[in-house]
Amino acid sequence: MKRRLVVLTGAGMSAESGISTFRDSGGLWDKYPVEQVATPEGFAANPQLVLEFYNTRRKQLLDVKPNEGHLGLAALEKDFELRIITQNVDNLHERAGSSQVLHLHGELTKVRSTGDESLVYELSPENYEVKWGDKCEKGFQLRPHIVWFGEAVPMFDEAVEVARLADVFVVIGTSLNVYPAAGLINYVPRDIPIYLIDPKEVSTSRKDVFFIRKGASEGVKELRGKLRIEN
Ligand code: OAD
């Protein structure tokens, strides 16, 4: 049976694809106030601005590609039962070939009804824009399928189950500032190796972490070596 490899990723995973992170200097939250574009209150105050913000993010997604890090992880499916838990709302893990990706903070390529959250729609690359006045089949305004600050994280319980069953746990490109995602590492059993790939120092509550102080592409290469996978 293959070993279970669980990887938690954040914005740094996609940085080398050209998508900015949130909290590095010049990151997204420097340019756009988070309370305006990533909270239910922001959406209520100015829905057009919020819809435009995510339209721009979707347009950017059409122009970028998975990087060596995404591809290197996808290739690990040959040797591991690989589960990716991502905080990212892009689809670069899927486009790299990863087949089991759990999106904790939602997905850019989806929208849902503001009146019935079970009505979720996939947008096509040709038709990625959502405007004020675009409605679901029940007549409610559509909104981005994104978990905003102050909202529940519906996929968290499943992510906890996945983390608990890991044989190896890896964290890539997240500042571990945002909960509950940052707390997932605490559910990883004590005797399981944890690797953390990030070019900067990241503080975690676990003291038994092996740091790989590199960007995602180089870091995943080094990880493959540590897991004794031929490159
Ligand atoms: P952050 O912007 O907080 O952290 C990005 C991390 O990526 C930092 O630790 C960087 O050092 C690291 N990094 C930068 N370049 C890298 C590279 N080339 N390779 C690897 N790592 C690199 O982003 P997240 O931790 O993902 O939520 O942020 C978590 C959540 O906060 C996001 O999902 C988003 C945001 O607000 C929502 O929008 C709900």
Present the secondary structure layout.
Layout: E1 3-9, H1 12-15, H2 28-31, H3 34-37, H4 40-45, H5 47-62, H6 68-75, E2 80-86, H7 92-96, E3 101-103, E4 106-113, E5 120-122, E6 142-146, H8 156-164, E7 168-172, E8 194-197, E9 209-212, H9 216-226
Parallel strand pairs: 1-2, 1-7, 2-3, 7-8, 8-9
Antiparallel strand pairs: 4-5, 4-6
Helix pairs in contact: 6-9
The protein binds 2'-O-acetyl adenosine-5-diphosphoribose.
Low-confidence stretches: none
Secondary structural class: alpha/beta
Helical amount among residues, as a percent range? 25-40%
Largest sheet: 6 strands, parallel
Question: What is the 3D shape?
Answer: globular
CATH-derived architecture of the largest domain: 3-Layer(aba) Sandwich
- DSSP E strands, number: 9
**What string, H for helix and E for strand, traces the elements in order?**
EHHHHHHEHEEEEHEEEH
Describe the structure.
This protein is α/β, with parallel strands linked by helices. It has two domains: 1-19 and 66-105 and 153-231, TPP-binding domain (Rossmann fold, 3-Layer(aba) Sandwich), CATH 3.40.50.1220; 20-63 and 108-146, SIR2/SIRT2 'Small Domain' (2-Layer Sandwich). Helices cover 29% and strands 20% of the residues. The protein contains nine helices and nine strands. The chain has helices at 12-15, 28-31, 34-37, 40-45, 47-62, 68-75, 92-96, 156-164, 216-226; strands at residues 3-9, 80-86, 101-103, 106-113, 120-122, 142-146, 168-172, 194-197, 209-212. Strands 3-2-1-7-8-9 form a six-stranded parallel beta sheet, with helices on both faces. Strands 5-4-6 form a three-stranded antiparallel beta sheet. Helix 6 runs parallel beside helix 9. The chain is globular, with a radius of gyration of 18 Å. The model has no long low-confidence stretch (mean pLDDT 95). The structure holds 2'-O-acetyl adenosine-5-diphosphoribose (OAD). 2'-O-acetyl adenosine-5-diphosphoribose is lined by residues 10-12, 15-16, 21-24, 27, 38, 87, 105, 147, 173-175, 177-178, 198-200, 202, 215-216.
